[in-house]
Design a protein that fits this description.
The protein is of the alpha/beta class. Helix content is 40%, strand content 18%. It has 10 helices and 7 strands. Strands 3-2-1-4-5-7-6 form a 7-stranded mixed sheet, sandwiched between helices. It is globular, with a radius of gyration of 18 Å. The two termini are 13 Å apart.
């Protein structure tokens, strides 16, 4: 597969700029998550995601190569490196890269476009991409790039934003991307369905595609309307979440998808 030419996507560049501004905030959120997974919605979402990804990533890496596409602050890279994976990362945000490199001295972490990854064909056993597709108007090219850098039989673990999520992000973002409302970030995001994701990953050269719901419920509204009760709510909600979020049609109502796909041999 040939290396792609990056899209001229204004929203993608806007997302990079917003994440550069918010890099310190994200680093702090990940630090909080490591000590209290019920501290806020971000911590809880990443805690639930880590629990699901653990089903598809061996606990011990044994030197297997892994690329984090849109590696952000590098917290996932650090954890996986400590578990024995040979890790690399790529991100377009200078602010995020500064944190990622500080967290992972000596690790190859490149500045680059998710639509044109700066790595050779068939370089990695695993590709990880957390909360990247939601900022891409046309995610197909980035998915193809993940396939290109994976070895045949390599595994991609990629998140995406469900259109029908119970937090109501899709219609809310249609409004907030056009006008300032409170402290909500004014940035367009793109939402999808499990059917669309399956079709896109298949077209990019993946097989054995499974799509999972990570966490369920309008928890962000609980955080906004009853924040003092959020921690206890999440503790009690978790058992229900584990039972329901990845079941049948309910996964399409979840607040985050995780795609697990195998690069065709």
């Amino acid at each position: 597969m040939e290396r792609a030419v990056p899209h001229n996507d204004e929203n993608k560049q806007a997302a990079v700029e917003v994440h550069t501004v918010q890099a310190d905030e994200f680093a702090e959120r990940y630090d909080v998550r490591s000590t209290d997974p019920y501290a806020d919605c971000f911590a809880y979402s990443r805690y639930r995601l880590a629990s699901q990804m653990a089903l598809y990533l061996p606990k011990t890496g044994d030197g297997k190569s892994l690329l984090d596409v849109g590696c952000g602050t590098g917290h996932y890279i650090k954890s996986l490196r400590e578990s024995g994976y040979a890790v690399s990362g790529v991100d377009a945000s200078d602010g995020m890269l500064a944190h990622a490199r500080a967290n992972n001295p000596g690790v190859v972490i490149e500045k680059g476009d998710v639509d044109a990854l700066p790595f050779q064909n068939a370089s990695f056993d695993y590709v990880l991409s957390i909360e990247v597709l939601r900022y891409l108007k046309s995610p197909q090219q980035s998915i193809r790039e993940m396939a290109r850098v994976l070895k045949p039989g390599g595994i991609a673990l990629v998140t995406a934003a469900p259109r029908l999520n119970l937090n109501g992000y899709w219609p809310l973002n249609q409004v907030t991307s056009r006008m300032r409302i409170g402290n909500l970030t004014q940035l367009r995001q793109y939402f999808t369905t499990s059917r669309s994701l399956r079709r896109q990953f298949h077209a990019a050269g993946f097989e054995e595609i499974s799509i999972h719901g990570i966490y369920l419920g309008p928890i962000n509204w609980v955080a906004r309307l009853a924040k003092p009760f959020l921690r206890n709510f999440l503790r009690h909600w978790e058992s229900i979440d584990c039972a329901l979020a990845d079941r049948g049609v309910l996964r399409d109502l979840s607040n985050m998808y995780l795609v697990r796909a195998v690069r065709a041999r």
